[in-house]
Write a structure and sequence with these properties.
10 strands; binds 2-amino-2-deoxy-6-O-phosphono-alpha-D-glucopyranose; 242 residues; alpha/beta; glucosamine-6-phosphate deaminase activity; seven-stranded parallel β-sheet; 7 helices
């Protein structure tokens, strides 16, 4: 059963997760972080940047793996998850860019990209702490409903609701890619500690299904129930259907 922590707001959740990550890095300077995109973890990244600066934490050896990437965006596109992770995480935290991996969404070589990413995570010794958001559809990473609970990193097709949600980052929905490369649910479950964050009413159904619903591929978030160490940090609104 996941531990559920109800927080006042994103800043309080961010401070809690940042504290756990700083403790981890202090114990293990080459800690492996699992990084999520989306708006949900941004307050956590800000809190973490502040803690690192205030405490003078040495993060030069910290390694990281992003959950997912769009397929087919031009290199350097500002909304590619490589660009987002660089802008929101690597630069403000002062991480070493070469140690932070993002799945390869280049259509050239896409047939090897999933297996290569899995091998890199394994070679790093696995993810120590995985930051997760959840989509309205219940997706984690980009594992949309119907994804196998044992799935590994691979190409997936984005659902229409997810493309509509993510259209806010692009000029129009036509520019939102149709496909992505995402860690699988099985990949995510291999991380040693999962922290799932959700804020606001729009996430209440997905959180209720993830925390209390039947474990099912139709609700990818429900896979957290299979993990022995999951912390769910939610505000009152996201917790309102628990
Ligand atoms: C995105 C990402 C997910 C994220 C989710 C929720 O599309 N691929 O990793 O958790 O959708 O996004 P947000 O945090 O902006 O609500």
């Amino acid at each position: 059963m996941a531990e559920v922590v109800i927080v006042r707001d994103q800043e309080e959740a961010g401070a809690l997760v940042a504290g756990a990550i700083v403790d981890l890095i202090t114990r293990k300077p080459d800690a492996v972080l699992g990084l999520a995109t989306g708006s949900t973890p941004l307050a956590t990244y800000r809190a973490l940047a502040n803690r690192i600066a205030a405490d003078g934490v040495d993060v030069r050896g910290v390694r990281g793996f992003a959950l997912d990437e769009y397929v087919g965006l031009p290199a350097g596109h500002p909304e590619s998850y490589r660009a987002v992770i660089t802008r929101e995480v690597v630069e403000p935290l002062g991480l070493t860019p070469e140690l932070i991996r993002v799945p390869n969404g280049d259509p050239d070589g896409i047939e090897h990209a999933g297996a290569d990413y899995e091998a890199a995570i394994t070679a790093a010794g696995g993810v120590d702490i995985q930051i997760l958001g959840i989509g309205r559809t219940g997706h984690i990473g980009f594992n949309e409903p119907g994804s196998s609970l044992a799935s590994l990193t691979r190409v997936k097709t984005l659902t229409e609701p997810t493309r509509i949600d993510n259209a806010r980052f692009f000029d129009s929905i036509d520019q939102v890619p149709m496909h992505c490369m995402t860690q699988g649910i099985g990949t995510i479950l291999r991380a040693r500690h999962l922290t799932l964050l959700a804020f606001g009413e729009a996430k209440a159904d997905a959180i209720a299904a993830a925390v209390e619903g039947p474990v099912s591929a139709n609700q990818p978030g429900s896979a957290i129930q299979l993990h022995p160490h999951t912390t769910v940090l939610v505000d009152e609104a996201a917790a309102s259907k628990l």
